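Feature request, filed as a ticket because there's no other form

It would be nice if the structure record came with a short human-readable summary line next to the tokens. Right now we just get the raw output. Example of a typical job, pasted below so the devs can see what we mean:
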Amino acid sequence: MGVMVSRIFVQRMKTQWGRCNPHTHSIRLNTDLAKKPGECLEYIVVHELTHLLEPTHNARFIALMDQFMPKWQAHRQAINRLPVRHESWGY
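Raw output as currently delivered:
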């Protein structure tokens, strides 16, 4: 993809699968992705890395996603059917 990432954070997130900061070239991934199918994790990683090239969900972003992951829309539909939440660990 030709994208340089300065830092990758993995943390529990209640409402998002991932997040990126184009200014610091860092991405955050939800720990619950480890419990999901591998293609869902791959989709989120590609999605966040693409945001380092194009911060918005405009036509350029879509074209880049098509280039880097041709079946990304099917993966997006699959992950959008899954709940985004972390389990309570009791503390």
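Something like this underneath would help us a lot:
The CA atoms of residues 3 and 54 lie 11 Å apart.
Residues 7-80 form a domain with the Zincin-like fold (CATH 3.30.2010.10).
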